Amino acid sequence: MQKLDAFTYMLGLARKAGQVTTGTPQVHRSLGRGDAAIILLDSGVSERTQKDFSDKSLYYDVPCLILEEGILSRTVGKPGCMVAAVRPGPLGERLRVLAKELDIKEPKNDGETGRNPSEVREDRAAEEK
């Protein structure tokens, strides 16, 4: 099984298990409650939405990933779905690992520096040590 197929399979499994939240307002609420392990964006979202979720991912220390256009809506079974969050737990952690193996991109947006959120998280972790 290819890694992208494994990622979409795990995302579909998480959706069937009720571990996926879709829609911008619902994902915002999940982030605020600390109920998101990973944020997934469709590549067709606007730059403003990318910036919004990139900023929130930095603030809440949750990875935000951009998937190829159409994969998210096809996998969660909701046409036009552009934003989703997966709850913390084994499925969320497995998706984080698979995303790292696939090298799925994060939106580039850290204010003036232009670095992506994963680089900022690594710097924060190094400072804490």
Would you kindly provide a written description of the structure presented here, covering whatever features stand out?
The chain has helices at 3-16, 24-33, 47-60, 71-76, 90-102, 117-128, and strands at residues 20-22, 38-42, 64-67, 83-86. It is of the alpha+beta class and 129 residues long. The chain has a single domain, classed as 60s Ribosomal Protein L30, Chain: A (2-Layer Sandwich), CATH 3.30.1330. The N and C termini lie far apart (38 Å).
Q: Give the neighbour order of strands across the main sheet.
A: 1-4-2-3
Strand content: 5-15%
Please describe the biggest sheet, giving its number of strands, its sense, and whether it closes into a barrel: 4 strands, mixed
- Which range best describes the helical content: under 10%, 10-25%, 25-40%, 40-55%, 55-70% or over 70%? 40-55%
Q: End-to-end distance, in Å? A: 38 Å
Query: In the CATH hierarchy, what is the class?
Result: Alpha Beta
Q: What string gives the helices and strands in order?
A: HEHEHEHEHH
Estimate the global geometry from the Cα principal axes.
Answer: globular
- Looking at the overall shape, the CATH architecture is 2-Layer Sandwich
What is the residue-mean pLDDT, rounded to a whole number?
A: 84
Radius of gyration: 14 Å
Q: Kindly state the number of beta strands.
A: 4
Q: Superfamily at the CATH H level?
A: Ribosomal protein L30/S12
The fold-level CATH name is 60s Ribosomal Protein L30, Chain: A
Counted by DSSP, the helix tally is 6
Low-confidence stretches: none
- Number of spatially distinct domains: 1
Provide the structure class.
alpha+beta
